[in-house]
Design goal:
There is one protein chain. The chain is α+β, with helices and mostly antiparallel strands. Helix content is about 35%, strand content about 20%. It is built from 19 helices and 21 strands. The strands form four sheets. Strands 5-4-3-6-2-1-7-8 form an eight-stranded mixed sheet. Strands 9-10-13-11-12 form a five-stranded mixed sheet, with helices on both faces. A hairpin with a 3-residue loop joins strand 4 and strand 5. Helix 2 packs antiparallel against helix 4, helix 2 runs parallel beside helix 5 and helix 7 runs parallel beside helix 9. About 5% of the residues have low confidence.
């Protein structure tokens, strides 16, 4: 056995302060440009406006590459922190996980609703900037503090003008460090979009962008929407043929709401256009969510339910035609602004909302109001339903064409396969489920229209070294191939010819969240990588992430109703429990799922199968030949029968990295 290099406590490094950000900046922000670290400063100013303390936000872009953000809010705190014994502004800019947005549920909190979650926003801006200048107007004085070289204090907090002033607010000027970004230039178009959105979503708040020209003159562009979201939506629809009037409204929880906290809810403006190129913009606590999230799926579900109900009630549904959410979504233009007390985003850049309750919050607010609006606007409603039904009819015709093309060569389907009703591969999903017990729950939980279930018995054979001529002798692999409509093949085969008969374009592997489930998942990945590589390469294979824990939090007062949450692993469990405790919950019980079969159909649907709340991880192959060879080499080491010596040596040298 090869001798291991020395590994003692001397090799352990501790990253303190802002060092973790500098070490791996992509974990904290986007690195294509400095736009997001500037947005973090803008978001802080917007949070002041959202809390009702600021009315103006001004962003200035200078010729030297620096950007300043100014607001007329309360001003960042300058008094010393009672525990840390340093000024509040210093803490906010130099310590990760510091800020005034953690105590949202407490009476008298500085912020009830904000985009800031973890206190890492402007500290990241500081870490990735050459210089930061902070000017604060507060308590009748003017304060100044300067940071340089990624967060080092160049000039401590000091009073630069003690002359009494009524002015309040903050101005932060940052010089982004180009060493951390693909491009050091802050994109003007993105800053314009952010400022426009802030003005749209906050009535009475004006935003201004000033851009310094080479001659020193500043060009200005301002935003102030008298009609708020509706005015902005009309701008988005200027070049489209609109259908009827816009549907607008807002709904927020009150003290008596049994589910949501006071103030949680949403505002919306949406309308239909004749062209099937619908799109929109969504926000959570003024933060733009470019990739949508659960609040957008709530809007999508509300529209689908309302249109479907209207069409059925008014006898518009043709025989044999079934609407899907996509049919009712394609002609929608929307602006959605959601307020959530404790938002959870996927990643620090906050592009996607992850709260499960976000779906219900928006669905419950919009669906009944849209159904009533349709009854009051019959002509618009009929046109909307007709547009949706036209998509459904076209989809059905296309599906029949596809079915005729593939039916001649289709082999007999496995008896344990529970088929989907739809014939269109692009919208169909095949869940490969571990065990008959879980398969039974999945059959009851599934969306029958487009989800199929194929239960698999335990741990299948390791097929890495089985030839494609013999692999179908394995009953489980044979059933997978028959269900997919695809024969075993290699990467050298023509991809379009191989996938011409593929019956499902989404194929999630759904196994238990424990070690056995992980082993079964690895064996199935081995099957696909070795014998169905084009299915993987085309992006059709996924891993469905099932939760390991269920958390039941008992009611803690009228603003804290009983909640049921799930956690994927120990780390997420701990984070969820800590978050619930901060929200004021005290009586919490945790249960560990022994497997998928232990979940009832409702739990399985909510956590692992519903498109609105599930977590699917797409399995992809690298694009370059060199990286692809490395993947196959690694699998050969891990799954090859003659590679035991390599695995033993690998475990000896790398085993310490495993967390048990």
């Amino acid at each position: 056995m090869a001798s291991s290099p020395s590994y003692t406590a001397h090799e352990i490094d501790v990253l303190r302060g802002l060092d973790p950000v500098k070490q791996v900046p992509s974990m904290y922000t986007r690195v294509d440009s400095p736009a997001h670290i500037i947005q973090e400063v803008i978001d802080n100013a917007a949070d002041e406006a959202l809390a009702g303390y600021a009315r103006n936000i001004t962003v200035t872009m200078y010729q030297d590459g620096s950007v300043s953000v100014e607001d007329d809010g309360r001003g960042i705190p300058v008094d010393n922190h009672p525990v840390e014994k340093v000024p509040g502004v210093q803490l906010i800019f130099t310590e990760l996980h510091s800020g005034g947005k953690f105590r949202k549920t407490q009476e008298g909190a500085a912020y009830s609703f904000s985009g800031g979650l973890h206190g890492v926003g402007v500290s990241v801006t500081n870490a990735l900037s050459k210089r930061i200048e902070v000017e604060i107007w507060r308590d009748g004085k003017t304060y100044n503090m300067v940071f340089s070289d990624g967060g080092h204090i160049e000039s401590p907090l000091s009073v630069v003008d003690s002359k009494k002033t009524k002015r309040t607010g903050t101005r932060v000027r940052a010089w982004p460090d180009g060493a951390y970004f693909n491009s050091a230039k802050v994109p003007v178009a993105e800053i314009e979009r952010i400022l426009c959105a802030k003005s749209v979503l906050m009535k009475g708040v004006a935003t201004l962008l000033r851009i310094e020209q080479k001659d020193g003159v500043f060009e200005e562009k301002s935003w102030f929407y008298k009609d708020g979201m509706l005015g902005y939506l009309n701008e988005l629809c200027q070049e489209s043929s609109v259908v009827g009037e816009a549907f607008t409204g807002e709904s927020y929880a009150t003290d008596t709401d049994p589910v949501f906290s006071k103030g949680e809810g949403c505002a919306w403006a949406l309308r239909w256009i004749e062209e099937p190129i619908g799109s929109g913009e969504s926000y959570v606590n003024l933060i733009p969510t470019a990739d949508g999230g659960t609040h957008v799926t709530g809007l999508r579900t509300a529209i689908f339910d309302a249109v479907k109900s209207f069409a059925e009630t008014h006898g518009m549904m043709p025989k044999g035609v079934k609407l899907t959410p996509e049919d009712t979504w394609r002609n929608v233009r929307y602006v959605l602004s959601t307020k959530i007390l404790q938002p959870q985003f996927r990643g620090q850049v906050k592009d996607k909302l992850d709260n499960r309750e976000g779906h219900r919050l928006v669905l419950d607010a919009i669906k009944p109001r849209l159904e009533s609006w349709f009854l009051a606007n019959l002509e618009t409603a009929k046109t909307v339903a007709e547009l949706s039904l036209d998509h459904a009819k076209s989809r059905l015709k296309e599906g029949r064409k596809v079915e005729r093309k593939r039916s001649a060569g289709l082999s007999e389907l496995p008896g344990k396969l529970t088929e989907a009703q739809s014939d269109l591969p692009a919208e169909c999903e095949l869940f490969l489920v571990e065990g008959d017990s879980a398969g039974g729950s999945a059959k009851q939980a599934r969306a029958k229209y487009n989800q199929a279930i194929l239960p698999l018995k335990g741990k299948i054979e390791n097929t890495w070294e089985v030839s494609k001529d013999l692999v179908l002798g394995n009953s489980e692999v044979h059933d997978i191939a028959a269900a997919l409509g695809v024969d075993p093949h290699g990467l050298g085969d023509d991809q379009s010819a191989v996938l011409a008969k593929l019956r499902y374009h989404t194929i999630p592997i759904m196994t238990d969240a424990d070690d056995d489930g992980c082993h079964i998942r690895t064996l199935l990945l081995t099957v696909f990588l070795r014998h169905f590589p084009h299915v993987v390469k085309a992006g059709h294979l996924y891993i469905a992430q099932a939760p390991l824990y269920r958390i039941d939090a008992a009611s803690a007062g009228k603003n804290r109703p009983a909640r049921k949450l799930y956690a994927m692993n120990d780390a997420e469990l701990q984070t969820t429990l800590e978050r619930l405790e901060k929200e004021g919950y005290r009586n919490m019980q945790t249960g560990r799922f022994k497997g998928l079969g232990e979940m009832n159909p409702e739990e399985l649907w909510e956590t692992t199968m519903s498109p609105d709340t599930r977590r699917l991880v797409r399995v992809v192959l690298p694009e370059t030949e060199e990286e692809l060879v490395n993947v196959y080499d690694l699998f050969n080491h891990l799954m090859g029968k003659k590679e035991a010596a390599w695995r033993r040596e690998w475990m000896s040298s790398k085993g310490y990295q495993v967390e048990i």
